[in-house]
Each structure stands twice: as structure tokens, then as C-alpha cells.
Amino acid sequence: MKLYIDPGTGSMLFTILIGVLGTGVYLLRNAFVKLKFLFSGGAKAKQAAEQRIPFAIFSDSKRYWNNFEPICDEFEKRKLPIVYYTASPDDPALKKESEYVKAEFIGEGNKAFSKLNYLKADILLSTTPGLDVYQWKRSKDVKWYVHVLHMANDPTTYRMFGLDYYDAVLLSGDYQIRQQRQLEALRGLPAKELRLAGVPYLDTMRSRLEAAGPLPEHPTTVLLAPSWGKSSIFGRYGDRVIKALLQTGYHVIVRPHPQSFTSEKEMMDRLMQDYPESEQLEWNRDNDNFECLRRSDILISDFSGVIFDYTLVFQRPVIYADTAFDKAPYDACWLEEELWTFRTLPKIGAQLTEEGLPHLKEQIDEMLHSPVYQNALEQARGETWANPGQSARIIADYLVEKREALLEQDRTAETTDKAQKHFKSRRHAKREKEAVPH
Q1: How many whole angstroms separate alpha carbon 124 and alpha carbon 145?
Q2: How many angstroms separate the CA atoms of 237 and 234, rounded?
Q3: What global pTM score does this model have?
Q4: Cα–Cα distance, 124 to 138 (Å, whole number)
Q5: Contact at 8 Å (CB) between 342 and 303?
Q6: CB 14, CB 41: distance < 8 Å
Q7: Residues 332-382: pLDDT tens digits?
Q8: Tens digit of each residue's pLDDT (9 = 90 or more) over 57-105
Q9: How do the domains of the chain map onto residue ranges?
Q10: Which CATH architecture describes the domain 203-374?
Q11: Terminus-to-terminus CA distance in the chain, angstroms?
């Protein structure tokens, strides 16, 4: 008889195991530090133990370098040291020459989280949700955790409790602030610092598009770029959407979400085998999506944030799939209001339905020859893309100012502690003097 453990219980047991092992490692490390202090003269060991990184970044994937690079460039310009930790051995950051930005590969998966769990830093910036929920735990030696968005739509489409344990979140729209405050109230969480910063990679993408110039002559190109999970295009339609696209006669680029190759590997292997690359069809897995967005004339997606990259920057038509989005695994399920994404999609694109799949070519042709929904695009841009062109500067300003505030708090606390100790010492001496018989 085989013992079955459901995924939820398995995840819980794994988290408990990680916690027990982490506690053991923490106790051993503390014991080692104390022994080192005793046997090495103390002062040198204390000095090493007190060394901290002023600013750190963590990226769980190389695909987020396009979001972090503008921030790193801003630190380089200001001559401020920052350490960039990545869980991708081929992260482009590792090859970039910088004087003040130090890039370091810290291992993949749990190995990376193990490093982060004992990190010593004043501020850590990341796009990774789920801090203090699963394997990635808050380090007691990190003063302030900051999340920055890597998409220009609802952060409540992160998996459950995605941002709950960050100290601050840098957002790109007022509606996102409202969503976070609602979640905090519902869950009884302390209020985080929320700032409208913008989206760094969108700023860079727009600058690149302006510099790239017009496209050369090319066949009509359709980009299929779904998200992942049961509510995605592939989760809903399977291979039927690829088959319908090939029947249009147009050139087709399929760019699946990178997570699909991990969480839906069997399905992706089958799709790529059944629909191999040809003159008409190409599979795109580039780390940088700029060129495939630029080369395409129309985008088909679902609820993926790439829709807003495409419409806000390139201002080209989109078709979004009716995938009956299931909010259950996401933070959005706690909120009664409709997601901003789904309120906005009908204003900036056309919907693909089950019944419309056989008529996909006609729908594409109609969208290609329709005027861009300019007014709706301008409204969406204003709602979800704060501070265009300024986000890296604003983020760097926030991090620098926040670190100084944290250091000032430490100085104030240290001064208060010294004053209290001095007062107690004087009071104790006075009592002893009064107790001496005359």
C-alpha cells in the first residue's frame, strides 16, 4: 500500500522541515560565531560580524534583469554600491561591467533562499512574491524588505499572500494601493509603505522602441503570449489556438510564459513536439521579449501582463482570450471588486471566445484594420503607469532615503539606550551611597 500525501500537506511538511533545519543551522552558526569571538581576540570577529550590505537586490530569474538594470544603472551613476543576487547562472547582470554594482550568482531554488535567509543587509529589493510564506524567510539581519512590480497590472494576481510580509511595495497605479490596503484590512496586517514608483522596464522598453526606428517590410505576424496555469489560453484551449492561428496563413510567434516550462512541462513538451518550428511558426524563449513584441503586428494573450507592455508601449491591437479566470489561488480572491485588468481589457482589445475560435482570422483582420483605441489606451496608461521615464530615479531615491531613515532610527535608539543605562547607573550609585551608614 502506497502512502499518499496531498500537495497542501506536503508543502506544509516541507516548510516545517525547512524551519527545523534552518533553526539548527542558525544555532550552529551562532555557536561558531561565539567560539570564533573567544579564540580570535574578539575584536576582529565582532568587526566581521557587524559588516552589512547597505543595498541588495534579489532576482529569482534572469528574465527580471530588464526591470532591475535601470535601477542598477541609477546606482552606478550615483556611485552607490549595491549587490545584485541572482538565482540564474546565466543572468545578463553577471556579464555587465560595473564599478559599484556587484552581481553574484547564489545558486538556484532552495540554495538561493538559504543564502537569503541569513543575509545581512539594510535594504533588500526584489520582484519575488511569497516572502516569509514558503522557503524564503525574512532574515533577522535585514532591516527592510521592498517589493517592486515586474508588471503593469494587478499585483493581486500573485499567488496567495504574495506581498503580505514585505515592509514596502513600489507600485505603478492608485488602484494597486487601494487593493493592498483592502488586503491588509481583511487580514489584520500592519500597513506597509506603499509608493507610486512606476515600472522600470516599461520606461526602458519605450526608449528602445524610439531608438529602434521603423520596422522593415515583413509578413503579417501574430504573437501568441499566454500566461500559465489552468486559467491561461493553453489551459483553456490547449493546442486548438495554435491550430487556428496556423490556418490564418500569417506568421506566428508562440512565446509561452517561462513558468509553463517548469509547472506545465509535460504539456509544453507535447505542444512543441506536435507543432515544430517552421517557416510559418516559431517558438520564442528569449530572455528579452522586446524583439518579438516589436516584430509582431497583433498580440493574442489572456490575463498576462504582457498585454499592457504591448498596448502601452507599442500601441498595437490585442485580442484577449475569454478564459474564465479562476481567482481561487490568488490574492484577488479576497477582494469583491473586479480586477483592473478585466475592467480594462474590453476597452483596449477584442475578446476571443470559444465560439469565435474558428473565425480567428476574421477577428485578426478586423483588429488590424481598426483604429487603435487611443482614448482607452491613454486612460489605461494614466491608471497603471505612474511616472513614465522616471521610475529608476524614484526607486533609487526611495531606497537611499529609507536607508538613511533606518540608520537614524538606530542612532536614536542607541543614544536612548545609552542615556537609560547612564541614568540607571547613577541611580544605582546613589542608592549605594545612601545605604552606607554615617
Answers
A1: 5
A2: 5
A3: 0.78
A4: 10
A5: yes
A6: no
A7: 999 999 999 989 999 999 999 889 999 999 999 999 988 777 788 899 999
A8: 999 999 999 999 999 999 999 999 999 999 999 999 999 999 999 999 9
A9: 51-199+390-397, 203-374
A10: 3-Layer(aba) Sandwich (3.40)
A11: 87
